[in-house]
Specification:
By secondary structure, this protein is mostly helical. 65% of the residues lie in helices and 0% in strands.
Length: 97
């Protein structure tokens, strides 16, 4: 019964339309709730943006570490005399796995 009343009231309407159609006391409560919801959504968007940046940084670090471990960074190593001491194809892990 209550669910039917709720659906009849909402019926795809925007919250501002609902606020305009109810009594003043309920409109005030709904306005406060809407304002709080806007704040929470803005905070969530900010946190989501930060998480995205953290994920990108983590991927960069992971790729860097994989390059180090697989010797796939394009730079050789040198011995004390300055001669190239790199061994092609030698890596700690198989990055194709």
């Amino acid at each position: 019964m209550m669910e039917e009343k709720r659906q009849d009231l909402l019926d795809g309407s925007a919250l501002s339309e609902i606020i305009d159609s109810v009594d003043e006391e309920l409109a005030e409560k709904l306005t406060k709730l809407r304002n709080r919801l806007v704040v929470v959504i803005e905070e969530l968007a900010h946190v989501s943006h930060l998480n995205s940046n953290l994920i990108q940084d983590s991927l960069k670090i992971t790729n860097f570490n994989l390059q180090l471990l697989t010797n796939d960074h394009g730079q050789g190593t040198y011995d004390k005399s300055g001669s190239d001491d790199s061994q092609p194809g030698r890596s700690i892990i198989n990055h194709k796995a």
